[in-house]
Write a structure and sequence with these properties.
By secondary structure, this protein is of the alpha/beta class. It is 39% helix and 18% strand. A five-stranded mixed beta sheet has the order 2-1-3-11-4. A five-stranded mixed beta sheet has the order 8-7-9-6-10. Helix 1 packs across helix 8 and helix 5 packs across helix 10. The chain starts with a helix and ends in a 5-residue tail after the last helix. InterPro entries: PhnD.
Length: 290
């Protein structure tokens, strides 16, 4: 077992415990083991740190066996859910709509961070750049994140199409592994512009990892819905209710606000499939719902 799996396993055990038991005796309704998977938004080490406060809090309240199912990408997260290799999976918006296309109403979204209901992507460039609007990108270089990313790839591409640009013909894409790499490419001059999630941009600025005097945002996309926790419809109803209820009350429990902060959330709210209309349309537009 690798080092990061050993580090994250206790957190996963605590997370699954709290999600299945919300302070009431649900053991009779819920399955005895909950398999949890989450596509990596950051490095495994950063994920462990991010969820550690939640794990520590939940370990003091509940007892339930959880099996952590490590996945290397969004595609593997979807596969783990659909192949019943994991029961509860954290998916980004694109992965969620792709899973629904493949499995229909067998995929059930449960809860998401409130922030995921009002996600946006931004286009950035150097403060001294002559780029002021999306059409100015024609003939230029643009750094984008992985194709599986909703915020760093899908929604920016959709915005380019709306601006009458052909992403693969009218400009040159500079691939980046993640949002931080997108910013680095623009700063280093490897790309004349870049696109990333607004929340990530704001966090990088707040953490002083970006000099807002050196870079500027020149376009912000319309609102769309991003990440969600999802399960298959045949997960016992008691488990589904416990997962949802446990996340929704987290804001009100002692230490909950600190836990939510570590997850970059103000609160959790129930996920509605209808909220993914924009992401679904963008995925169809870019040929990613085949």
């Amino acid at each position: 077992m690798s080092t990061w799996i050993r580090r994250i396993a206790p957190v996963a055990r605590s997370l699954g415990t709290a999600l299945l038991l919300t302070g009431t005796a649900l053991a009779a309704q819920a399955q005895s083991v909950l398999r949890v998977a989450m596509a990596p938004e950051t490095t495994p080490a950063e994920q462990a740190v991010r969820f550690e406060p939640l794990g520590q809090f939940l370990e003091t309240r509940f007892k339930m066996r959880v099996k952590w199912v490590p996945v290397a990408s969004e595609a593997f997260a979807v596969r783990a859910l659909l192949n019943r290799e994991a029961d509860l999976v954290w998916l980004n918006g694109l992965s969620y709509v792709q899973a629904v296309v493949r499995a229909g109403d067998r995929v059930v979204p449960l809860v998401q961070r409130e922030e995921d209901q009002k996600a946006r992507s931004v286009f950035i460039t150097k403060a001294s750049s002559s780029i002021k609007k999306l059409p100015d990108l024609k003939g230029r270089t643009l750094s984008l994140g992985p194709s599986a990313s909703t915020a760093e790839n899908l929604m920016p591409r959709s915005a380019l199409i709306a601006a009458k640009l052909r992403p693969d013909a009218d400009l040159t894409a500079v691939p980046a592994a993640n949002a931080a790499a997108v910013v680095a490419a623009v700063v280093a001059g490897q790309a004349e512009a870049g696109a990333l999630g607004l929340a990530t941009w704001e966090r990088l600025v707040a953490d002083k990892q970006v000099d807002p005097a050196a870079l500027k945002v020149f376009f912000t996309t319309p609102v769309y819905t991003d990440h969600t926790w999802a399960v298959l419809a045949d997960l016992p109803e008691g488990s589904r209710k416990a997962i949802t209820g446990g996340m929704l009350v987290l804001e009100a429990v002692k230490g909950g606000r600190e836990i939510l902060k570590a997850q970059r959330a103000h609160r959790y709210t129930e996920t509605k499939d209808a909220g993914y209309a924009a992401v679904r349309a963008a995925a169809e537009q870019t040929g990613q719902l085949q």
